[in-house]
């Protein structure tokens, strides 16, 4: 980015709103305030572009970003109809009738530190034939559909130290974030073209369908699948993952939320005969979608399959072609692509908003204070890091398809054609040793990524970890094995106590909504 220590502010223009666009605007603004940069921010968002709004899940990083922006959780929950997410329930992935949970808290943070012991809690659980989710407090909260708080003397007290995630309607969250955008200029328009520097190729001005010409210093492309700037103008190329991820269509729809009873606090990822269905509860309805392979069924057959699974008709809101993949360069010239403009994967592990935030924070931390045009090596390093991030997302999702299922042509074809070589290699490696931190890389300056803590529930749930290997590792240190057993038992007991004390998820959200109505 250009220097901002002159009288003329550095003009950052974000094209596209939604969750990615407004998070970008707010974080670029926060960064400018923190570093005392002379930065002007404009967001271009067209009211002509519709939103689907059928449910989105985050990871825990989202809550930290809200706090950093000074946004109260209770206001966010009340005004966006959001709910709490502790993890993902994977149903029928290993075999029909089987499910496993992937909680997102870290039990090692609650245990005594054991140097050089690796993932000793998980190793003990596998050796003992117990689920690796046993010592997770979020597992207990998921199981009982509880809120992250308990009542004490009329006040809400947090029941754990861990940051939960959220479910929400992305259209409502985009509108909410926009309401927090004081000091950010907004323009209702579509970008129709651009002027470029003949020497560098950088965009110098954007032409809008309103007839306006907008001078720019730096652009953020949040135009979603259109990728209007990064590919349409800057010429970045798309790298497809279609050969390793077997689903290529998504049929979003809504179903009614029961008026009474438990409100789930997890994303439901339910494997079907030709793909899988997501169910994301918000306070008003359940956002759903069938992610499927049109090589195996037609859209009409997909709808019929889901209606059979649910036991009632659905009204699809769309049927979207999925071209999973990423850009070869998310930062090209003076354009940075974020959100769906930069990469797209099936929404199995909530990688979209997570990836957006990590990419954005990495960029701001590394590059926003440059006093000159960035060096090509800066862009290369950043692009390499983000390419690695998304490739790791791809590999993690591919791992979920290592299944015992062979009950439909889809699952037979997945086993034969879609498990990539590096997935086979990792599964083979982890059949001989327990996963460890050294098996994973992070070129994201320590920002959260898919490493061993997230892999263990999936590997364990799919039956891909070797109990004999885990037993052998524990047998080498009987004192550690005894301590691990005592720690897992203690953490599971404490998690159950916490879950029994916690407020009902549904009741807590209703109380928050009522309190906000009186403000």
Tell me the radius of gyration: 23 Å
Predict the CATH topology of the domain at 1-55 and 169-238 and 323-416: FAD/NAD(P)-binding domain
**Mean of all residue-level pLDDT scores:** 95
Please state the second-level CATH architecture of the domain at 1-55 and 169-238 and 323-416.
3-Layer(bba) Sandwich
- Low-confidence residue ranges: none
Provide the β-strand percentage band: 15-25%
Our count of helices gives 15
Distance between the termini: 42 Å
Structural class: alpha+beta
Query: What is the helix fraction of residues, given as a range?
Result: 25-40%
Main β-sheet, in a few words? 7 strands, mixed
Which strand order do you get reading across the main beta sheet? 6-5-17-18-19-16-20
Shape: globular
CATH class of the domain at 1-55 and 169-238 and 323-416: Alpha Beta
Total number of β-strand segments?
24
Q: What would you give as the CATH superfamily of the domain at 1-55 and 169-238 and 323-416?
A: FAD/NAD(P)-binding domain
């Amino acid at each position: 980015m250009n220097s901002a220590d002159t009288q003329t502010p550095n003009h950052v223009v974000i094209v596209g709103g939604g969750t990615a666009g407004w998070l970008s605007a707010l974080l670029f603004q926060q960064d400018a305030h923190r570093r005392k940069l002379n930065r002007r921010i404009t967001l271009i968002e067209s009211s002509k572009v519709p939103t689907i709004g059928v449910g989105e899940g985050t990871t825990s990083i989202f809550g930290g970003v809200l706090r950093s922006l000074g946004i109260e959780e209770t206001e966010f929950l009340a005004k966006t109809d959001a709910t709490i997410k502790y993890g993902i329930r994977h149903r029928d992935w290993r075999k029909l009738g089987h499910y496993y949970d992937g909680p997102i808290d870290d039990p090692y943070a609650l245990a005594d530190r054991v140097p050089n012991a690796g993932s000793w809690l998980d190793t003990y659980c596998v050796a003992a034939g117990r689920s690796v989710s046993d010592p997770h407090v979020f597992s207990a909260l998921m199981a009982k559909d509880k809120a992250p708080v308990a009542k004490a003397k009329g006040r809400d007290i947090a029941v754990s130290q861990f940051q939960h995630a959220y479910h929400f309607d992305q259209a409502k969250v985009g509108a909410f974030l926009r309401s927090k955008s004081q000091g950010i200029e907004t323009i209702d328009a579509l970008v129709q073209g651009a002027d470029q520097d003949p020497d560098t190729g950088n965009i110098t001005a954007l032409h809008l369908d309103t007839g306006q010409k907008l001078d720019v210093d730096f652009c953020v492309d949040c135009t979603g699948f259109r990728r209007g700037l990064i590919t349409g103008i800057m010429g970045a190329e798309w790298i497809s993952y279609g050969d390793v991820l077997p689903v290529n269509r998504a049929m979003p729809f809504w179903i009614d939320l029961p008026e009474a009873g438990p409100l789930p606090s997890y994303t439901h990822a339910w494997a079907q005969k030709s793909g899988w269905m997501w169910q994301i509860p918000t306070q008003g309805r359940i956002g759903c979608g069938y992610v499927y392979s049109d090589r195996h069924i037609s859209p009409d057959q997909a709808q019929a399959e889901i209606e059979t699974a649910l036991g009632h008709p659905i009204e699809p809101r769309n049927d979207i072609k999925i071209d999973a993949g990423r850009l070869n360069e998310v930062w090209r010239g003076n354009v940075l692509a974020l959100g769906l403009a930069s990469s797209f994967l099936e929404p199995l592990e909530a990688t979209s908003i997570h990836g957006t935030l990590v990419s954005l924070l990495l960029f701001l931390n590394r590059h926003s204070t440059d006093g000159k045009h960035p060096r090509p090596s800066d862009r290369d390093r950043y692009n390499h890091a983000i390419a690695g991030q998304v490739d790791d997302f791809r590999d993690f999702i591919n791992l979920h398809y290592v299944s015992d299922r062979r009950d439909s042509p889809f699952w037979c074809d997945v086993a034969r054609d879609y498990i990539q070589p590096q997935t086979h290699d990792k599964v083979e490696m982890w059949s001989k040793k327990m996963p460890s931190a050294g098996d994973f890389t992070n070129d994201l300056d320590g920002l959260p990524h898919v490493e061993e803590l997230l892999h263990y529930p999936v590997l364990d749930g799919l039956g891909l970890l070797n109990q004999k290997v885990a037993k052998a590792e524990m047998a080498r240190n009987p004192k550690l094995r005894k301590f691990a057993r005592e720690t897992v038992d203690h953490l599971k007991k404490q998690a159950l106590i916490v879950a029994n004390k916690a407020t009902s998820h549904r009741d807590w959200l209703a109380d928050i909504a009522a309190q906000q109505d009186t403000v």
